[in-house]
Amino acid sequence: MLLRLLGIFCLRSRSAKVGIRMFSANDFHFHSFEATEDITRYSNGGYHPVIIGDILRSPSKSYRIVQKLGFGTYATVWLAQQVDRPRSFYSLKVTTSDGLSGNEAQVLSSLHDKPRVSNIIALRDSFELEGPNGKHWVLVTDVVVPLVNLLSPERSLDWRIKVVKGIVKGVASLHASNIVHGGTG
Prior knowledge:
This protein is an alpha+beta fold.
């Protein structure tokens, strides 16, 4: 457990016996010497403890946690594999249970009902998760590349300009819908 808290994840399997091949711990490697989330936030009102190999279940689908993608003030984000469709991967954002990020699912759902919206990620599924630290929302979206990778100097200037234009279109869509993005966490 101590290694997990330090950001060096010991992969362990909690896999149920399923008739399809799932990825094993040997398929992924994660180590972080960069900043990780504040471990004191794994308390009442804070983060939900997630371990690689966990299965999170919505009313209609099950997702196996494969890899940690990141964290922010109000959530941790995980790469997950849909259990009954092993080639389907999603990003699962597990919010803190303090209620400060509770309407994100509603906002994402309402945005895609509007014709003017573009360059905003689609919400594929969402569900509530009861845990030792309270109730958390899980938002299921497509996996996207981190912004820092998209704007890397290794990419051509033309590529980076296209990325920035896409971001501007997304923010404009939010503003046209009277929504302001509140941060990067």
